[in-house]
Write a structure and sequence with these properties.
The complex is a heterodimer. By secondary structure, chain A is mainly alpha-helical. Helix content of chain A is 74%, strand content 0%. In chain A, helix 3 (62-96) crosses helix 12. Chain A is globular and about 65 Å long. Chain B is an alpha/beta fold. The chains are: A mainly alpha, B alpha/beta. Chain A binds chain B through residues 1-2, 4-6, 98-100, 226-227, 229, 232-233, 235-237, 239-240, 242-247, 285, 289-291, 293, 353, 355, and chain B through 53, 56-58, 77-83, 85-87, 89, 92-99, 101-103, 105-107, 109-110, 112, 114-115, 117-118, 120, 123-124, 126-127, 130, 136, 139-140, 142, 144, 162.
Chain lengths: 356, 425
């Protein structure tokens, strides 16, 4: 048995390594998609030029290099980072709630972020901080404050029952969504901007967004890895987890904070992108099993690849449909239109694993 | 607990506990020695599970203290406690598709630091626990696809992987078939021989009596009796706590105490119609119960002490004219019984074998009928078939018939006859 278990560990490593390769490939492919059609070799060369030592040997035309490294690369990386963050949060929240229907937005991050961003748009808040747009900052603030509020409302004595958390999350979300609608009514000509933010996407992403959000998300993922065994044991129920030495309340608080931090950072960059955080952990669980120590990294890599590719697809579909007009489909639409049928297919095929 | 000479491993001292404002434990004190199996019995809502939850540190007592191997539950870190104490809950639901081995390996959690992952030692401990519980062949099966018995054993394996000194089990045999129940209990017993201390709750008194060295009986959030099974499981205790009449005996095959609940104690408004039952050898037990349920005032006799019908009558609180064990009926018992019979509204004579020792019982019936007390004979057999007196008994039975005693072929018929002749005034 022990050798078999060790074999399983080795399999985890090779799966994660394979997913890492897929992620790199997705980034390259996604860089190749877009309004200006650039040859594949140019993309590879422009990337390689950034590498130390190698850079001096390659030459890429200036305009094309700018398109790739200044316009596409931050956008593609934003997709990767957001996909990773949402998948991380989805895995964590499905684990905490022991519920495969939980997603990163379940305890109010989405409504909080939407409210913060709407406020910034309607009030016409100007420049942000450290080069990050005020809309992003307000979205981040809205999300984190909302989760803190939901968490403190849900406290019963020394405990925070997950059912309370879930229900308070729904109530607070509903309340804030109503406020967003009020702001929408008051928005006037800014309604368009507000609507576009709510749809989610990477159209306005800049390098600074990626550079600020990525370390946050990276830190959240590293810390959550150390809590992933706790998350496993919590799948036996909170009472059993405590009887197995897990300080359940503390772990729950830390994990909720990490998941919310990652989601807030993601939402600040991209607005609300649905379905990634729900479906990726499901998909990856079928591939690697339910152990969070492999589920979390594997989900993050898969989510990153998927969102980078979906964004590339969104840009391409826009180009085809509107014949030259630089309009594009919001990436959230692409993830939902592709993800929902796929999810239903999985649900029907593998329903045994959901106990149905 | 009280009588053992072993070292005390679990000590519960004056524990009071509440859910909100509802008191759920009210001053519980007990101690368990190393290697003992303590069975906690009691009706639903008596506080059995609550007590286990307190000992495992999930519930914090309002008053009192709990020590497990010298660790003060509640102030010690959960991880430290989990190395000493493992819990097998009654319901065990695992979210997502973990295998049985994954779950058993989770039992190693208390032995691992946050940054550590399982090593060869942990795999070995998990493998050994599965071997011990006979679940190794289930290792790669998803836990949620196992049968109730298999799952229970895997959860016990998980608890053993913790390498605990004390094991708490909440209803370890509930929802299991008989063979799985015995397997689980044999397993627990064998673990105790290796020095593990076990505290378990039970609904099945017989299983508890058979497998536990000590029992504690809980009622209304308190422990009302504790000690060896024969001290705790008495007919009086069972009646007081569960509200049922019960026969408590030693089983000749297992040598263990066994409890047979007979009926719930309910005060039926007794009719002032009394029926005297002449029976013996177990022939009257069923009729006795039926008469009581129908609301009759029941008497019986003459019965030898130790006769099966005598035991039943005792358990049901029926007034009996008795005779010493295995002795023929004496004249004085005969007279006493006859007096009682003549004061009854009717007599029922069951189909008991008649020998020289109890022939007087038939004479009682004959006397009663002559003095006008209506008599019902239950006779599924020919009179000769139960006559061991060389014809005398058959003669009396024929005479009874000649004197218009009523005849029924079974207890139901007899009850119908009694109801028709004894119409309430």
């Amino acid at each position: 048995m022990s050798s078999e278990a060790l074999f399983r560990r080795k399999r985890w490593k090779s799966i994660v390594f394979a997913l890492l390769l897929i992620l790199i490939a997705s980034i390259v492919v996604s860089l190749n998609l877009g309004f200006a059609q650039l040859p594949f070799t140019t993309v590879v060369k422009a990337l390689a030029k950034k590498l130390p030592f190698l850079g001096g040997w390659l030459s890429v035309p200036g305009v094309e290099e700018t398109i790739i490294t200044e316009i596409r690369l931050p956008r593609v990386l934003a997709g990767v980072v957001v996909g990773m963050a949402l998948s991380l949060a989805g895995s964590i929240f499905q684990g905490i709630f022991r519920n495969p229907m939980a997603d990163p937005y379940v305890i109010g991050t989405s409504a909080g972020a939407a409210f913060g961003a709407s406020l910034a748009i309607v009030l016409g808040l100007g420049a942000g901080l450290l080069g990050v747009a005020s809309i992003s900052l307000m979205a981040f603030l809205g999300a984190t404050l909302t989760v803190s509020l939901v968490y403190s409302i849900s406290r019963v004595g020394a405990r925070t029952p997950v059912t309370m958390l879930l229900l308070s999350g729904i109530a607070v979300s509903t309340f804030l969504s109503a406020l967003v609608m009020v702001l929408g009514v008051l928005a006037g000509e800014k309604l368009h901007a507000l609507y576009f933010w709510l749809l989610g996407g990477f159209s306005y992403v800049e390098w600074v967004d990626v550079l600020v959000a990525a370390p946050l998300i990276l830190a959240a993922s590293i810390v959550s890895y150390f809590y992933s065994r706790d998350l496993n044991v919590m799948q036996l129920g909170e009472e059993q987890a405590l009887q197995l030495g897990v300080e359940v309340e503390r772990s729950k608080l830390v994990l909720t904070a990490l998941g919310s931090l990652a989601t807030s950072a993601a939402v600040a960059i991209s607005g609300l992108i649905g379905f990634v955080g729900l479906i990726i952990p499901h998909l990856v669980r079928l591939l690697v099993g339910p152990d969070h120590r492999v589920l979390i990294p594997a989900s993050m890599l898969t989510g990153g690849s998927l969102l980078a590719l979906c964004d590339g697809l969104a840009r391409t579909i826009g180009r085809i449909t509107f014949l030259g007009a630089p309009t594009e489909l919001p990436v959230g639409v692409v993830t939902a239109i592709m993800g929902a049928p796929f999810f239903l297919y999985l649900l029907r095929r593998r329903r045994g694993e959901y106990g149905l | 607990m009280i009588n053992g000479e072993g070292r005390v491993t679990v000590r519960v001292l004056g524990v009071e506990c509440s859910y909100g404002s509802t008191k759920v434990l009210d001053g519980v004190t007990l101690s368990v020695n190393e290697g003992e199996v303590l069975g906690i019995l009691g009706p639903n809502g008596a506080g059995k599970t609550t007590l286990l939850r307190c000992i495992s540190g999930v519930l914090k007592p309002r008053v009192g203290s709990i020590l497990v191997e010298g660790l003060e539950v509640g102030s010690v870190k959960p991880k430290l406690l989990a190395k000493t104490l493992a819990v097998v809950p009654q319901e065990f639901e695992v979210s997502f598709n973990f295998t049985a081995f994954d779950v058993v390996l989770m039992g190693r959690n208390p032995h691992l630091s946050r940054l550590q992952s399982e090593g060869a030692k942990d795999y070995e401990a998990a493998r050994k626990a599965m071997e011990l519980t006979g679940t190794l062949h289930l290792a790669n099966r998803p836990i949620n696809q196992l049968s109730g018995g298999e799952k229970r054993k895997v959860v016990i394996a998980k608890a053993l992987a913790q390498e605990p000194k004390v094991l708490l089990l909440d209803e370890p045999t509930s929802h299991l078939d008989v063979s799985a129940q015995l397997e689980v209990m044999d397993l627990i017993k064998s673990l105790c021989r290796k020095g593990l201390t076990v505290i378990a709750t039970f609904h099945d008194m017989n299983l508890a009596a058979r497998y536990c060295n000590v029992l504690a009986l809980m009622h209304h959030k308190k422990i009302v009796a504790a000690g060896r099974p024969e001290e705790v499981l008495t007919a009086e205790n069972v009646k007081e706590v569960f509200g049922v009449e019960a026969l408590v005996k030693k089983h000749p095959a297992t040598g263990c105490l066994y409890v047979v609940p007979i009926s719930t104690v309910k005060e039926v408004a007794r009719l002032n119609r009394s029926v005297h039952l002449i029976c013996g050898g177990g022939s009257g037990a069923r009729m006795m119960r039926m008469l009581l349920e129908a609301g009759f005032n029941v008497r019986a006799g003459v019965l030898n002490v130790l006769d099966e019908d005598y035991e039943v009558a005792q358990a049901l609180g029926v007034r009996v004219v008795s005779e010493a064990p295995f002795s023929p009926i004496t004249d004085s018992s005969y007279e006493e019984c006859l007096k009682l019979v003549k004061s009854s509204s009717a007599v029922v004579v069951t189909c008991f074998p008649v020998g020289s020792g109890n022939l007087k019982n038939l004479e009682v019936a004959l006397e009663a009928l002559r003095s006008g007390v209506p008599t019902v004979l239950i006779e599924p057999l020919k009179p000769e078939a139960r006559d061991f007196t060389g014809g005398r008994a058959a003669e009396i039975l024929k005479e009874l018939k000649a004197l218009k005693a009523l005849s029924a072929s079974n207890e139901e018929e007899a009850l119908n006859l009694l109801n028709s002749i004894l119409k309430p005034a």
